[in-house]
Amino acid sequence: MYSGHPLPEDAVDMAYAADDAFEQRIGAAELLAGTMRNDGGVIDEERLGQYSEANDRYLNLLSAAEVLMTPIAAFEIARTAEEAEESLASPEVWGYMSAEQRTFTFEARTALATNFKEYGVTEGSLRVLMTEFDNKNKFTLVHTGSGVDIGDRKEDFDRARSYNSVMESKNDALFQVEVGGATYDARRGMTDEVYDAKVEDARARGDTLPDSQQLSQETGDLWTWTMLTGNGLTAGGGVQIRRVSGGQVRRYVRDPVYDYQALRVCPAVEIPDLTS
């Protein structure tokens, strides 16, 4: 894991400048090589000076950016920042995360997508959501859209998809991911607050809401429910499940042995606070 403080905005701006300078350095080197090729290997001092100036600019900007941020290559942050904000989280959420949490997210995304590959989960379907807990921002990496069916899709009822089965230790290999030498359980992250945030994030992006009748019509799948595996059972021993109807989250409780095909589980990994 990288150590340090949350990435300052000024450092990001400087990283982008270093990235631009990196491209200019490549251009200057290509021009220098071109003149040498045309002149039989003779070094063009003017072109050499241009390359030296571009190289110095890049190295100075890179060094200055790294003074303000954790020791990760500034141009690498610049190259991944825009992609990360678009596919991994909203710009607001990405901005609140520390550099360590961002690094954790990239690693957890790869591990989670690998575990759930056969169920249609990809790196592109995983997104960071922000909720609040104890007056602090809490971040969770969540599978977007409806949850996944880990039972036999040919069977209307299959114990494998029930809450009791999902929570058994035999499923640890599927739901647990290792990041930085520690193990994180993707069953714990799907809570009531995270589910609400998932729906609102889809709404903000203009996507069809998860577990909605509209999505089932678009995909040809059933109108699904998602279990809140991170909430635990109710006082009466029921499992909380959620779906979207009329644009609103609807709350239900079912017996933990309930195993109808429309019942889904949504992998979600809590992103720890790595700065404390």
Kindly describe this structure:
The protein is built from 9 helices and 9 strands. It is α+β, with helices and mostly antiparallel strands and 276 residues long. Helix 1 runs antiparallel to helix 2 (45-68) and helix 1 packs across helix 3 (74-87).
Mean pLDDT: 87
- Tell me the Rg in angstroms: 24 Å
Instruction: State the shape.
Output: elongated
Helix coverage percent of residues?
40-55%
Structural class: alpha+beta
How would you characterize the largest beta sheet?
4 strands, mixed
Question: Can you give keywords for this protein?
Answer:
four-stranded mixed sheet, elongated, three-stranded antiparallel sheet, alpha+beta, disordered N terminus, 276 residues, single chain
Map the helices and strands.
Elements (H helix, E strand, L loop, with lengths): L8 H30 L6 H24 L5 H14 L3 H6 L2 H17 L10 E8 L2 E8 L19 H4 L5 H4 E4 L2 E4 L6 H13 L8 H7 L5 E3 L11 E7 L2 E7 L8 E2 L3 E4 L5
Parallel strand pairs: 5-8
Antiparallel strand pairs: 1-2, 2-9, 3-4, 5-6, 6-7
Helix pairs in contact: 1-2, 1-3
Structure at a glance:
The chain is of the alpha+beta class and 276 residues long. Helices cover 43% and strands 17% of the residues.
